Amino acid sequence: MILTNLAPDLRNVNLFLVGMMGAGKSTTGQVLAQRLAYHFFDTDALIVQATGQSVDAIFQTHGESGFRKIETSVLAELASYRNLVIATGGGIVLTPQNWSHLRHGLVVWLDVDLPTLWTRLNQDQSRPLLKTPDPRATLAALLEARRSLYAQADVRVAVPGEASPEQVAERVFAAIAPVLRRD
Ligand SMILES: Nc1ncnc2c1ncn2[C@@H]1O[C@H](COP(=O)(O)OP(=O)(O)OP(=O)(O)O)[C@@H](O)[C@H]1O
Ligand SMILES: O=C(O)C1=C[C@@H](O)[C@@H](O)[C@H](O)C1
Ligand SMILES: [Mg+2]
């Protein structure tokens, strides 16, 4: 057997990574997909590909609500596939309709503390929601407002700031295997 590393129960399900911007959904998701021999998709990257515009440019031209509509369309399409690891955008949990798509798979929350998020994001100009006079306070407020939504995930993985993407992927793997076996 070549695939001894894979639990058979991990077949035929999509894994949706949710969490704050900077939580490492895109970075860890790619490692996790390799680990599981799944395909990897990133809703933000697909939106950029489909529109030919950056996330920031979409926010500027169509507003956050315009971005959220495109995000929901992309998510709906992805949900009809199987065996994907999907890194979602940090705000995917805000749109109630998105949950009907997310619930087709297993939703995993990468729970990262605020200081770690800020360390990762404070030099990054690509997050439109952080273009405010006090981006750290904005990030804190977003986390506070969204925490209860992320907590609706099937699995919460607490991610220590010092854990590498490979270590985070291993933690996710360890956390999801027992959950899937119960189904
Ligand atoms: N485990 C990690 N250790 C150190 N740095 C990390 C880790 N995971 C991600 N990073 C870094 O943090 C930044 C944000 O990561 P990433 O883009 O994967 O987050 P995200 O959750 O996809 O955010 P968004 O919701 O904005 O798409 C990147 O610079 C990435 O290299
Ligand atoms: O947290 C958010 O609302 C966002 C996170 C990013 O992934 C992008 O989807 C966009 O910058 C919005
Ligand atoms: Mg991302």
Approximately how much beta-strand content do the residues carry? 5-15%
**How many runs of DSSP E, i.e. beta strands?**
5
Give the strand order, joined by hyphens, for the main sheet.
Answer: 2-3-1-4-5
Give the N-to-C terminal Cα separation: 24 Å
Task: Provide a count of the helices.
Answer: 7
Shape: globular
The averaged pLDDT comes out at: 92
Low-confidence region ranges: 1-8
Give the ordered list of helices and strands. Answer: EHEHHEHEHHEH
Structural class: alpha/beta
- Major β-sheet, in short? 5 strands, parallel
**Molecules bound to protein:** adenosine-5'-triphosphate, (3R,4S,5R)-3,4,5-trihydroxycyclohex-1-ENE-1-carboxylic acid, magnesium ion
Fraction of helical residues: 40-55%
Radius of gyration from the alpha-carbon trace, in angstroms: 16 Å
Key terms:
183 residues; alpha/beta; 7 helices; globular; binds adenosine-5'-triphosphate; binds (3R,4S,5R)-3,4,5-trihydroxycyclohex-1-ENE-1-carboxylic acid; binds magnesium ion; EC 2.7.1.71; ATP binding; Shikimate_kinase_CS; amino-acid biosynthesis
